[in-house]
Amino acid sequence: MLSDALRALRETFSAPLRRVMWLSLGLTLVLLVLFGAGLQWALAALPEFGIGWIDTVLAYAVRFLAVIVLIPLVHPVVSLVAGLFLENVAARVEETSYPSDPPGQDQPFWQSVAVAIRFTAVLIAVNLLVLPFYLIPIVNVFLFWAVNGYLLGREYFELVALRHRAPKDATALRRRHRGRVLAAGVLVALFATVPVLNLFAPLFGAILMVHTYKKLAAPESFA
């Protein structure tokens, strides 16, 4: 698992994927800036009480809460943008690392968009649901790894598996190896907690899951 993670890390910043990496990063930053600007506009529109110190305290409190809310949303925004390119990333990795294997089948573009939107909505909903627990020191870190590790592992593994299997078979394979898939997902969640590197977490996750899928599927092909 660790060797696959190091391999995926190298490939995330390799020349074949560099264009996708920069394009994904650029679109992500644009979305985050727009989201931040919209949030600031909404805060500026809040009514004032006309009492100086109360307005000042409330202004700082609201902005603090806005930052707390914004932090868990960074990863879903990154995932939404990267989701548009993950099929391409998986295809590139399969082509360069497993040239003798049968190529995977790309999903239709609009289906990929729908999957990216659905997954982003789930990430946002779940992270907002556990948001109060993110305020608890130490607990918040492990909770983030566990919750997002499960979600990321499930989504990225099935994204790769669906390139080679029917949906029912992809889900069955994931369930048979749920421990391994969860461990890989937690590695992606760990990656997502590192500042700056978290912007590349979805690409890292897709690459890692290609290698994970290939190792899990290989024994079954000879069963």
How would you describe this structure to a colleague?
With 223 residues, the protein is mostly helical. It has one domain (2-215). The protein contains nine helices and no strands. Helix 1 crosses helix 9 and helix 5 (109-129) packs antiparallel against helix 6. The longest helix is centred in the first third of the chain and has 31 residues, at 52-82. The mean pLDDT is 80.
Question: What's the arrangement of secondary structure elements?
Answer:
Layout: H1 2-12, H2 15-44, H3 52-82, H4 86-97, H5 109-129, H6 139-161, H7 167-176, H8 178-192, H9 201-221
Provide a compact summary of the structure.
78% of the residues lie in helices and 0% in strands. It has helices at residues 2-12, 15-44, 52-82, 86-97, 109-129, 139-161, 167-176, 178-192, 201-221.
What descriptors fit this protein?
mainly alpha, 223 residues
Helical content (DSSP H or I, runs of 4+): over 70%
Overall structural domain count: 1
Q: Describe the global form.
A: elongated
Indicate the mean pLDDT.
Answer: 80
SS class: mainly alpha
Q: What's the Cα radius of gyration?
A: 20 Å
Low-confidence stretches: none
The total of helices stands at: 9
Strand content: under 5%
Q: How many angstroms separate the termini? A: 23 Å
Order of helices and strands: HHHHHHHHH
> What's the count of strands?
0
Largest sheet: none
